[in-house]
Write a structure and sequence with these properties.
The protein is 24% helix and 29% strand. It is α/β, with parallel strands linked by helices and 314 residues long. It folds into three domains: 73 residues, no CATH class; 114 residues, D-tyrosyl-trna(Tyr) Deacylase, Chain: A (3-Layer(bba) Sandwich); 74 residues, no CATH class. The strands form four sheets. Strands 12-5-4-3-13-14 form a six-stranded mixed β-sheet, with helices on one face.
Length: 314
C-alpha cells in the first residue's frame, strides 16, 4: 500500500499539472510523463487502460494507452453506483439500523447496511437501551437477536482475490456493519534490527486476534514495505519492514465475521453500563418475523416496541 499510493500520486500530479497548462490541445509532456510511469519495470505484468479527453461535443484525445481494452472497473464502479443512488433514492433517504423491543425482555437488532455506523452510534444505542431497562429495573436482557440478512448470504464479491478480502478496503457487505467492517492497526519502527511495534487502534482486539509479527526495523537506506494478512480466523500476520526513526504506518484488516463483531461490541457497551445479555442469536432471512421488517423501523438508533400486533416507535 505504501508504494501503490506513491505511484498513484506520481500518476495524478503530472496529469493535473499538464492539464492545467494545456486544457484544449495535445500534450507532449503528458504523453511523456504517463508513458514513463506505465512502462516502468515493476508494471511489466500489469494492465493499463487509459483514455484522457477534453470535454465538449468534439473531444480532443490528450492521451491514450490501450483505450479499448476491457478491464474490471474496480473503484470506478463507485461513480456509477453513486449516480444510480442519487437518481433513485430521495436526498433525505436514511439507511436504518434499528433496535426492536419484542417484549418479555427480548430485543431484535436489524441493519440495512449503513456504512457510516460507528462505535459511537452503537454506544449511543446501548446507552438508550440501558436507560430504558433501568427504568424497568432490569439488569439482564433475556435474548438479543441480530438480523443480518438484509443483503442475503453473499457478502463478498466472487471476483475479488483472496488477498483483497483480507484487507480493510474490501470488507464484507452485510446488513449490520460496524466501523466499515474494518479494524485498524499502527506499525511503528523500533530499534534497527528489532520487529516493528504493532498496536491495535482498539485494544479490545487483543482478545480477538493473535498477531504473528514477522516484521523488522531497518536502516534508513533500506526500502520500506509492509503487508497484513489473515491466514486463518483469529490470526493476523504482519510482514515487511520500515526504516528506523520513520513515521508510524497505519494499516487495516477486514472483519471476517462482522455479525459476531457487532454483537460482541454491543454486549461490551451494555456491560459497561451495567446491563448483561443472557443469550445472543443470529437470525437468517428465512426465519424473520414479518412484523419485524426493517422497512418499518425508526431512524438510526431508534427503538420499536411491539405491543400486541402493532409496532410503536419511540
Amino acid at each position: 500500500m505504501i508504494y501503490l499510493n506513491k505511484y498513484l500520486i506520481s500518476l495524478i500530479m503530472p496529469l493535473m499539472a499538464v492539464l492545467n497548462q494545456w486544457p484544449t490541445q495535445a500534450c507532449p509532456a503528458l504523453i511523456r510523463d504517463l508513458d514513463m510511469i506505465v512502462n516502468q519495470p515493476q508494471f511489466r505484468s500489469a494492465q493499463f487502460g487509459i483514455s484522457i479527453q477534453t470535454q465538449g461535443r468534439n473531444p480532443l484525445t490528450l492521451y491514450a494507452h490501450n483505450p479499448d481494452r476491457l478491464l474490471l472497473p474496480a473503484s470506478n464502479a463507485k461513480l456509477l453506483t453513486t449516480a444510480g443512488a442519487l437518481k433513485i433514492l430521495p436526498l433525505n433517504f436514511t439507511v436504518k439500523t434499528t433496535l426492536y423491543d419484542l417484549g418479555n425482555n427480548q430485543f431484535h437488532l436489524v441493519g440495512e447496511g449503513d456504512p457510516t455506523f460507528k462505535t459511537s452510534h452503537l454506544q449511543a444505542l446501548a446507552q438508550s437501551l440501558a436507560q430504558l431497562l433501568k427504568e424497568r429495573n432490569i439488569k439482564q436482557i433475556k435474548r438479543l437477536t441480530l438480523d443480518d440478512g438484509y443483503y442475503g448470504a453473499e457478502w463478498l464479491n466472487s471476483r475479488w482475490g483472496w488477498d483483497d478480502v483480507q484487507a480493510d478496503y474490501a470488507p464484507p457487505i452485510n446488513g449490520l456493519i460496524l466501523n466499515e467492517n474494518a479494524i485498524g492497526l499502527t506499525l511503528t519502527p523500533a530499534i534497527a534490527g528489532q520487529p516493528l511495534i504493532v498496536k491495535w487502534d482498539d485494544m479490545e482486539n487483543n482478545n480477538r486476534y493473535r498477531i504473528e509479527n514477522q516484521t523488522k526495523t531497518v536502516a534508513i537506506d533500506q526500502p520500506e514495505f509492509v503487508n497484513v494478512a489473515q491466514p486463518e480466523l483469529g490470526v493476523v500476520r504482519v510482514t515487511g519492514q520500515l526504516r528506523v526513526g520513520g513515521e508510524p504506518e497505519p494499516v487495516g484488516i477486514s472483519v471476517q465475521q462482522p455479525t459476531k463483531y457487532i454483537a460482541e461490541e454491543f454486549r461490551r457497551s451494555l456491560s459497561l453500563l451495567g446491563i448483561e445479555i443472557e443469550t445472543v442469536e443470529i437470525t437468517s432471512p428465512n426465519n424473520l418475523n414479518p412484523l419485524m421488517s426493517p422497512l418499518k423501523g425508526a431512524r438510526q438508533g431508534g427503538f420499536i416496541q411491539r405491543k400486541d400486533k402493532h409496532c410503536r416507535a419511540y
